[in-house]
Design a protein that fits this description.
Layout lengths: L1 H13 L14 H16 L10 E5 L8 H14 L3 E2 L8 E21 L14 E21 L2 E19 L2 E3 L6 H8 L7
Parallel strand pairs: 1-2, 1-3
Antiparallel strand pairs: 3-4, 4-5, 5-6
Helix pairs in contact: 2-3
């Protein structure tokens, strides 16, 4: 008995404790990748030959949306890619490009077949769910309005819609995916830089 007591005391003396603060960002990387992918897809549809070799001022004063800064840079990059020279003042421009967002957000669907999470009496923590089948769908959707005018005269205006999808399906422990428009972002994040690249 004395040996058992000594062993127990020694075990307790060796027990230690350490902790590390774990935090999460307010928005997930998946959400941000879905939204920025939808922006990229919408801007791929934007083509305007009139911009080529012209000076363009981009007006974002009516743009109110999540990730405004990303939209602003992506639009400016697309306009420059189409052959325009970006200028900082409207009076210096041949064309003014106004940009507004009609929508930019996530649609979320979740279906679970099985035992749902159940409340436990006198406990703040519910009994965890036990799904036999679960499917989750996330879709980033954008509606972008781009209006181009020359000294107040109409040149072009159009709405650009796009979406980016991601889904996951679990049957017991088996996982599958039909759509993943953010996979490229994950794969690039995993790549190691190669010498000379």
């Amino acid at each position: 008995m004395k040996r058992l007591t000594s062993l127990l005391f020694l075990s307790l003396a060796c027990v230690g404790c350490s902790s590390r603060l774990l935090t999460n960002t307010p928005r997930s990387a998946i959400e941000q990748l879905l939204l920025s992918s939808a922006v990229d897809k919408a801007l791929e549809k934007f083509r305007l030959p009139e911009l080529s070799q012209k000076k363009a001022f981009v007006d974002f004063s009516n743009l109110k949306a999540y990730d405004q800064e990303y939209i602003k840079v992506a639009v400016r990059a697309r306009i420059a890619e189409l052959g325009a020279t970006l200028v900082e003042k409207a009076e210096d421009a041949d064309l003014v490009v106004e940009v507004a967002s009609g929508a930019l957000g996530i649609e979320y669907k979740n279906l679970v077949v099985g035992l749902p999470a159940l409340p436990v009496p006198s406990s703040p923590v519910p009994f965890p769910e036990a799904p036999l089948y679960r499917t989750t769908e996330q879709t980033g959707i954008i509606k972008l309005l781009i209006f181009v005018h020359r000294k107040g005269k109409f040149v072009a205006a159009n709405h650009y819609y796009a979406k980016a999808d991601r889904d996951e399906t679990f049957i017991l422990w088996w996982r599958s995916q039909r759509h993943d428009d953010v996979r490229e972002g994950w794969e690039k994040a995993d790549l190691k830089l190669q010498p000379g690249k």
